[in-house]
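Task: sequence design from structure.
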């Protein structure tokens, strides 16, 4: 069972998460994975930025805020000796973070390895609070640091798990606890290399941590607790008639997450697919709602479009050769190498046939690194005018229509584009893979809401 930042966001929310954990633990062996309290990871990163910039006052202010937030939560959750003991643990974790932040202040830079060790403090703090509260309720809970269990490569900031080595550690540390009817509360988001250097799994990586542990422990199910009722047919803020989907497939859930649906981390499902471990997406604020079950195949089979999602924090980057001397294929290949070097994900890619120009959609946060790598890769071509200046359009958004049953569905794309055009929304770019699982459409930002509603209604997703 994994609890997200909002599910751990206050003393009240931790009580609710603990009640759900205790209920599950009393029925069968359970492992809990926790995120940092809401906003805490951002506070930790901001503190490191102040430290790097030499802003000692800003650093001290954030250190005080972090201490006050967790001290207050501890006081609301616990009392007596249990409170004092848990507070000592919190003080120790915050002291470790302070030591790293002051080191960054002295260096004037943030080494990626130090950042990974520092930001893991958020999950360590919430795990200590959760375990302490569960213990006060008579549950044999214990906080476990993720870097003692999850083994990863050395890509700091966005590490990938080494599953065989993680299985060994999980069998040595977690299995005995489960056999003794204890309840491990594991920090999400973080792991460590084989030689013990702390790493993180990327933003939203607590979902990934939970799926890794579910896989290596051969769990019967994985439950992801967040602040939404499950996976919906559309964003309810854009489409009031959006409904919770009873079931979706692994591939549908992964595509929805990749294209902006804020339900789970895009990499979450990969460790589970081979073993067919089902995943429940449920709302810790409203646990009476069954939520959405993510499975290899749905009971009703492919049924056309399943959901529509959207993203606005994207940028459309266009690369346009100015000379026929250049090979368009080679330019595209080198561009993709530059994107890989920038550690960026391509959300959509389209190209023309004659002029050999092409464009790709990326997340706005990745834009500075992408432009730097592209300009470095094509420095000669840009300097001599063989390549037009790289164009960036920020006034765009992505709509993605997802469904296993769209393959070989005659006329579906035409209906979708007609529905969008009837709202006077212009389609800028289109991308669809050979699997026909997803249709990606790029439009202007001001047309996103109208387009999403039109597609949702046209495809009957609210029914």
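Answer:
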């Amino acid at each position: 069972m994994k609890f997200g930042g909002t599910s751990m966001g206050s003393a009240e929310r931790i009580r609710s998460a603990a009640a759900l954990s205790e209920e599950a633990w009393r029925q069968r062996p359970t492992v809990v994975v926790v995120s940092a309290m809401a906003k805490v990871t951002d506070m930790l990163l901001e503190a490191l930025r102040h430290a790097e910039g030499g802003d000692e006052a800003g650093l001290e202010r954030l250190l005080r805020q972090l201490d006050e937030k967790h001290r207050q939560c501890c006081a609301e959750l616990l009392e007596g000796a249990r409170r004092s003991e848990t507070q000592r643990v919190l003080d120790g974790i915050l002291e470790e973070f302070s030591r790293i932040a002051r080191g960054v202040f002295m260096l004037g830079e943030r080494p990626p390895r130090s950042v990974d060790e520092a930001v893991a403090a958020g999950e360590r703090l919430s795990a200590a609070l959760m375990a302490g509260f569960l213990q006060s309720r008579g549950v044999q809970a214990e906080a476990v640091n993720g870097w003692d269990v999850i083994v990863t490569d050395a890509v700091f900031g966005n590490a990938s798990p080494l599953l065989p080595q993680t299985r060994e550690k999980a069998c040595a540390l977690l299995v005995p606890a489960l056999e003794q009817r204890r309840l491990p509360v594991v920090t999400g988001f973080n792991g460590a290399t084989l030689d013990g250097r702390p790493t993180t799994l990327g933003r939203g990586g607590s979902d990934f941590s939970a799926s890794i542990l579910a896989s290596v422990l051969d769990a019967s199910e994985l439950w992801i607790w967040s602040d939404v009722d499950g996976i919906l047919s559309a964003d309810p803020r854009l489409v009031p008639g959006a409904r919770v989907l009873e079931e979706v497939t692994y591939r549908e859930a992964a595509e929805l997450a990749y294209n902006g649906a804020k339900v789970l981390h895009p990499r979450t499902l990969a460790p589970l697919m081979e073993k067919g471990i089902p995943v429940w997406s449920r709302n810790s604020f409203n646990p009476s709602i069954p939520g959405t079950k993510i499975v290899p195949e749905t009971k009703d089979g492919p049924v056309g479009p399943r959901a529509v999602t959207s993203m606005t924090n994207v940028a459309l980057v266009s690369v346009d050769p100015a000379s026929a001397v250049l090979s368009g294929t080679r330019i595209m290949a080198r561009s993709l190498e530059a994107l890989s070097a920038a550690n960026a994900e391509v959300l959509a890619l389209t190209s023309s046939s004659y002029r050999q120009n092409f464009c790709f959609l990326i997340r706005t946060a990745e834009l500075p690194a992408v432009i730097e790598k592209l300009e470095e890769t094509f420095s000669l071509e840009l300097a001599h005018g063989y390549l037009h200046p790289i164009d960036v359009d920020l006034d765009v958004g992505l709509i993605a229509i997802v469904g296993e049953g769209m393959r070989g569905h005659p006329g579906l794309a035409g209906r979708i584009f007609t529905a969008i055009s009837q709202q006077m929304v212009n389609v800028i770019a289109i991308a669809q893979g050979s699997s026909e699982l997803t249709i990606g459409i790029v439009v202007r930002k001001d047309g996103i809401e109208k387009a999403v509603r039109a597609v949702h209604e046209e495809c009957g997703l609210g029914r």
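The chain has 15 helices and 18 strands.
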